[in-house]
Design goal:
single chain, mainly alpha, elongated
């Protein structure tokens, strides 16, 4: 479960990099948040602190980006 959580976290982090570009904020809804939340769940199930932290940080940054860009009101 640890490896699955890390894979989801890394994929979400790569999508987050693209989501920071102008006009690509919608990628946070489709590419970043679902894998990051899955990575958070799998990390919590495996009780791995590193994978859970990675997914939580990616989720927080994506939500902040969506909030600042007007995607979450």
């Amino acid at each position: 479960m640890r490896v699955v959580s890390l894979i989801f976290g890394i994929l979400a982090a790569l999508g987050l990099v693209l989501g920071f570009l102008p006009l690509f904020g919608w990628l946070n809804w489709i590419v970043v948040l679902p894998p990051a939340l899955l990575g958070l769940v799998f990390g919590a199930l495996s009780r791995d602190r590193g994978a859970t932290t990675l997914s939580a940080v990616v989720t927080g940054i994506a939500l902040l980006r969506l909030f600042l860009g007007g995607g979450i009101i």
